[in-house]
From TrEMBL, chain A:
<dbReference type="InterPro" id="IPR019546">
    <property type="entry name" value="TAT_signal_bac_arc"/>
</dbReference>
<dbReference type="Pfam" id="PF01058">
    <property type="entry name" value="Oxidored_q6"/>
</dbReference>
<feature type="binding site">
    <location>
        <position position="232"/>
    </location>
    <ligand>
        <name>[4Fe-4S] cluster 2</name>
    </ligand>
</feature>
<dbReference type="InterPro" id="IPR001821">
    <property type="entry name" value="NiFe_hydrogenase_ssu"/>
</dbReference>
<dbReference type="GO" id="GO:0009375">
    <property type="term" value="C:ferredoxin hydrogenase complex"/>
</dbReference>
<feature type="binding site">
    <location>
        <position position="257"/>
    </location>
    <ligand>
        <name>[4Fe-4S] cluster 2</name>
    </ligand>
</feature>
<feature type="domain" description="Cytochrome-c3 hydrogenase C-terminal">
    <location>
        <begin position="224"/>
        <end position="301"/>
    </location>
</feature>
<feature type="binding site">
    <location>
        <position position="158"/>
    </location>
    <ligand>
        <name>[4Fe-4S] cluster 1</name>
    </ligand>
</feature>
<feature type="binding site">
    <location>
        <position position="191"/>
    </location>
    <ligand>
        <name>[4Fe-4S] cluster 1</name>
    </ligand>
</feature>
TrEMBL record, chain B:
<dbReference type="GO" id="GO:0008901">
    <property type="term" value="F:ferredoxin hydrogenase activity"/>
</dbReference>
<dbReference type="GO" id="GO:0030313">
    <property type="term" value="C:cell envelope"/>
</dbReference>
<feature type="binding site">
    <location>
        <position position="500"/>
    </location>
    <ligand>
        <name>Mg(2+)</name>
    </ligand>
</feature>
<dbReference type="Pfam" id="PF00374">
    <property type="entry name" value="NiFeSe_Hases"/>
</dbReference>
<feature type="binding site">
    <location>
        <position position="64"/>
    </location>
    <ligand>
        <name>Ni(2+)</name>
    </ligand>
</feature>
<keyword id="KW-0460">Magnesium</keyword>
<dbReference type="GO" id="GO:0016151">
    <property type="term" value="F:nickel cation binding"/>
</dbReference>
<feature type="binding site">
    <location>
        <position position="494"/>
    </location>
    <ligand>
        <name>Ni(2+)</name>
    </ligand>
</feature>
<dbReference type="InterPro" id="IPR018194">
    <property type="entry name" value="Ni-dep_hyd_lsu_Ni_BS"/>
</dbReference>
Length: 362, 515
């Protein structure tokens, strides 16, 4: 495989060295704190890597797995070229007492300089006893580590807003990081967070020495500024009132909208339709599944497979204009706010199409 | 005088796990497996739309989410009375297989290899292979640049560690390749899954996605690359280690365990959910008797809680009736894991259990040739062998997809019903049990692989499989308990889905650094 970006670089040898060093560091049980020093000694370069402390709480490790799926830069390259992972339970060599000591040392040595990454929600019920690492509650570990962090980054929807462990009835009273510690927390939600969102946000912080512009939910605008629905490859189906009604069916001449199956596209802000997942392989809506709205504070908004109110209303209108009567399958309430203008426009457009069809207009 | 060793957290596994053992005379006398997280996903499922179960429960684990979703949709298929069309069944098999491959490669190279290699041997490599010379030069440079400090914390190599310079250098070279390969397997999954982790295409009655020719081609091309790697790198490495340098460790049966094996079988070949017609077979083996594979009877599954932080009234129930009532102050309890038992016995689950139950000829030849089963080393051999079998079968399955044919047979949510999804995750037998009443989930229970393997003692006081595997392990130097992590990691623990929590241990005698 030809990697153009790599081929165009002038410093191939150093980069490949660093890639090897990263891999070897992980394998040799090197403390990551030491690796930049080694690299610096070997190459006579300044040690300018960003120390990172990565804590795991009420989570599933899915965001770490997603981070390891980073395509360009690859994870090994990333960890050494840009970041110095001081503490990360899944990747680090040390265990037990020594791992905990490494954490304390990193917090002291890089006081005020490290980025704290939190993966997983914080259970606060019963003083946080539902998640402990090395005998301490996760809540207390996050509070302590955040005190002297340069930046706090919540990776994944659990860390950002509570996510699935915080779903009703929230048995362990899970909360997002910002709700527990206050202050500025950069939220990179997603279930899991896309590796580009994680990497891009951190690199942005390093480049400009400040957090990127955030939306009202603390999410970086470059990744979370655009609505899924406005950029959806199935948008044409929506505009023409052509909906997928049964899982696994496809419409013959248009990509049918997933709205009738509960798609959260109209209330979800992320760049999935353009960025795609797993090295550009696919994304949820392209795989004929509804967007679950996994980057939103409301996730998981249940039931997931029933249309949201605005869409249910629109389906009803557009189907009525197709003289098909109302849809009996949707029990969604039709009250409340409706995306009136869009719905109206779509219905009008669709009615126009119908009329042209009837008149035999090409 | 027994010496207590506590390792918390154990790293390079999935999830939060701790172990506590007592060593006397260089041998482990007692062992306890503990975990440190409780999220209550089963409680969250109650009262919800049954279709949401697969989305909620796939979040049990980010390493094997596809398997949780698989168990969940199979229990929905059953409760909804939905027959899955062939395309749907095959796509589910391909997604599951992709998850297995990614997980197995990651486990051997990135989580385990450190337990068996004397890394410093690389410096002595004096062959002529350019790729290996490159690896050597990097390591030498690292050593020269720093001092020995970066190589700690790390255990000292023992008599079982592999120290041949060429072998160790080659292993490091393969480790680097494997990083790319596990990522490729995740991409392969996303082709039919939408994204990974937490793919989105599984629904009751089948899948949402069409097997179009371009997707088939994209999948097949990645699969061929992975098969090449599995057959020519991964399996060869494992067999080389298992029959060569690590043979003595295997012969000593280090990490043998309880001798009972359980497999639910995986990869449906006929009717979806029929565990009697699967590529990897379902069944149970007791007391290491490989001549007798007992048919699987799900009624024999139940969970006990005497040593777990749950109310004692909830003990001994089948998962359909199972309850999750935490009691964090319970006297005598030491784990959030319940103790699942099959026919009253603790069962080892995972690749070794699956292979011994399936008894594929090539694998049984290996068993007969090597003897001394089970062991920690044997688990790695079974994992790699299985990876080859699955990957090659997937090549056949992807050819059986029929573009344009149905992928899903959607059914409405029933007013009431119940279902059971018994599948295998990379780490072992995984069961989801759901009961529907008034169109909603009344009860949902998951019995996950690591709960089987890392279970605490049961009501009779019989220890779980990992605890039994640790007991008797040689720890000649308590300062260097390398065999403990070899054993624990051979089970590929995945603790995020095995809900439990650790109590602060105030009377620790000794803490250890284990890498």
């Amino acid at each position: 495989m030809i990697d153009l970006a790599r081929a165009l670089r002038k410093d191939i040898s150093r980069r490949s060295f660093i890639k090897y060093s990263a891999t070897l560091a992980a394998m040799l049980g090197l403390s990551d704190a030491f690796v930049p020093k080694i690299a610096a000694a070997v190459e006579g370069m300044a040690n300018g890597k960003q120390p990172v402390i990565w804590l795991h709480g009420a989570e599933c490790t899915g965001c770490t797995v997603s981070f390891a799926n980073s395509h360009h830069p690859g994870v090994a390259e990333l960890v050494l070229d840009t970041l110095s992972l001081q503490y990360h339970e899944t990747l680090m060599a040390a265990s037990g007492h020594v791992a905990e000591k490494a954490l304390e040392e990193a917090m002291t040595r890089f006081k005020g300089k490290y980025i704290l990454v939190v993966e997983g929600a914080i259970p606060v019920k019963d003083d946080g006893i539902y998640c402990r690492i090395g005998g301490k509650t996760f809540k207390s570990k996050v509070e302590e580590a955040a005190t002297n962090a340069a930046y706090v980054v919540a990776v994944g929807t659990c860390a950002s807003f509570g996510g699935i462990p915080a779903a009703d009835p929230n048995p362990t009273q899970c909360k997002g990081v910002a709700d527990v510690i206050g202050g500025t927390v950069v939220n990179i939600p997603g279930c899991p967070a896309h590796p580009d969102w994680i990497v891009g946000t951190i690199v942005s912080i390093l480049l400009f020495n400040k957090v990127p512009e955030l939306d009202k939910h603390g999410r970086p605008m470059p990744f979370f500024g655009k609505q899924i629905h406005e950029n959806c490859p199935r948008r044409g189906g929506y505009e023409q009132g052509r909906f997928i009604k049964k899982f696994g069916e496809e419409l013959p001449n248009i990509e049918g909208c997933m709205g009738a199956k509960g798609c959260r596209g109209p209330i979800t802000y992320a760049d999935c339709p353009h960025r795609l997942w797993n090295a550009g392989t696919n994304f949820c809506i392209a795989a004929s599944a509804p967007c679950a709205g996994c980057v939103e504070p409301s996730f998981p908004k249940l039931p997931l497979y029933e249309p949201i109110e605005e869409v249910a209303k629109f389906i009803e209108e557009s189907e009525a204009s197709q003289d098909q009567g109302s849809i009996s399958t949707f029990a969604a309430s039709l009250g409340g706010a409706v995306a009136g203008a869009a719905a109206g426009a779509g219905a009008v457009y669709f009615a126009g199409e119908k009329a042209r069809e009837k008149e035999g207009v090409e | 005088m027994a010496q207590k060793i506590v390792v918390d957290p154990i790293t390079r596994i999935e999830g939060h796990l701790a172990i506590e053992v007592e060593v006397e005379g260089g041998v482990v006398k007692d062992a306890k497996c503990k975990g440190t997280l409780f999220r209550g996903l089963e409680i969250i499922c109650q009262g919800k739309d049954p279709r949401d179960a697969a989305v909620l429960t796939s979040r049990s684990c980010g390493v094997c989410p596809a398997e949780h979703a698989h168990a969940s949709v199979q229990q929905l298929d059953m409760a909804f009375g939905a027959e899955v069309p062939d395309n749907g069944r095959i796509i589910r098999n391909l997604v599951a297989g992709s998850n297995f491959i990614a997980s197995h490669i990651l486990h051997f190279y990135h989580l385990t290899a450190l337990d068996y290699l004397d890394i410093m041997a690389i410096a002595q490599y004096n062959g002529a292979d350019p790729a290996l010379l490159k690896v050597r030069d990097k390591v030498v440079a690292l050593v020269k640049a720093g001092d020995t400090a970066p190589f700690t914390p790390r255990y000292n190599p023992d008599q079982f560690s592999v120290a041949d310079p060429t072998v160790v250098t080659t292993a490091v070279h393969h480790y680097i390749q494997a990083l790319e390969m596990r990522k490729k397997a995740q991409e392969m999954l996303a082709i039919f899954g939408g994204k990974m982790p937490h793919h989105v295409t599984y629904v009751a009655g089948g899948v949402t996605i069409q097997p179009t020719p371009d997707r088939i081609a994209a999948f097949r091309s990645r699969l061929l690359e992975l098969i090449d790697f599995i057959n020519n790198v991964y399996l060869k490495d494992v067999l080389y280690f298992g029959t060569g340098p690590l043979k003595p460790l295997h012969d000593m049966k280090v990490g043998a365990g309880c001798g009972n094996f359980l497999s639910y079988g995986n990869f449906d070949l006929g009717k979806s959910g029929d565990f009697n017609n699967r590529f990897l077979k379902a069944g149970a083996i007791f007391n290491g008797d490989l001549t007798k594979v007992n048919p699987l009877d799900p009624d024999k599954i139940h969970e006990e809680v005497k040593y777990s932080w749950y109310e004692n009234t909830t003990t001994g129930k089948h998962p359909y009736e199972g309850e999750t009532k935490p009691d964090a102050k319970k006297e005598g309890a030491y784990s959030w894991l319940k103790a699942p038992r099959y026919d009253g016995k603790p069962m080892e689950v995972g690749p070794l259990a699956r292979q011994l139950v399936t008894q594929e000829k090539g694998f049984m030849d290996l068993v007969n040739k090597l003897g001394a089963w089970p062991s920690a080393v044997a688990r790695h051999a079974a994992r790699a062998w299985e990876c080859k079998l699955i990957a090659e079968a997937m090549l056949k399955w992807v050819g059986e997809l029929k573009p344009g044919e149905p992928v899903c047979n959607e059914k409405p949510v029933p007013e009431k019903g119940r279902g059971m999804g018994l599948v295998e995750a990379a780490r072992g037998a995984l069961g989801h049990f759901g009961v529907i009443e008034n169109y909603k989930i009344r009860n949902y229970q998951m019995v996950v692989p690591t709960t089987w393997n890392c279970s605490p003692a049961d009501d009779e006081g019989v220890k779980g499989p990992v605890e039994q595997a640790l007991i008797g392990a040689p720890v000649p130097d308590p300062e260097n308990p390398i065999n403990l992590v070899r054993i624990v990691r051979s089970f590929d623990p995945c603790v995020a889905c095995a809900v439990h929590l650790i109590h602060p241990d105030t009377n620790e005698i000794k803490k250890f650094r284990v890498v």
